[in-house]
Amino acid sequence: MQCTVTWEGEDGMAFTAHTETGHTLRMDGAPASSPGEPGGHNLAPRPMETVLAGTGGCTAYDVVYILKKARQDVRGCSVRLEAERATTDPKVFTRIHMHFTVSGKDLRTEMVHRAVELSHTKYCSASAMLEKTAAMTYSVDIAQVE
């Protein structure tokens, strides 16, 4: 897997990532908090927000895949991530809570919980990396639809 990240120029702290699969992702920094500090223009997510979003995508992908493989009629899956970071550099994630909302028809509660657990403990490579510095927790809501 490859990715190239390029600084967009001296007027800010924006970067563009070009992925091996041909996709582009823009990142930007917060505006400078004091004169003379480098700052962004707040035009795109922060790099660490993209790490958190990628983790959410990785685990949601796992949950949907596991449920489909188990022949569950999953219709929706979202995960809200709430994270805390260290106050000193490097400002790694120290706590991440993932709240899953999974919807579908006749979903078996134990299968949904098992899919989330398997993603968390076995399959999600992003979570596996982040749990080296962050306490990871999760909760689940299931919405049955007709």
Automatic annotation (TrEMBL):
Matches recorded under Gene3D superfamilies: 3.30.300.20
Pfam families: OsmC (PF02566)
Superkingdom of origin organism: Bacteria
PANTHER family (alphabetical): PROTEIN YHFA
Name of the protein in question: Uncharacterized OsmC-related protein
Naturally occurring in which organism (per UniProt): Thiomonas bhubaneswarensis
Lineage: Bacteria, Pseudomonadati, Pseudomonadota, Betaproteobacteria, Burkholderiales
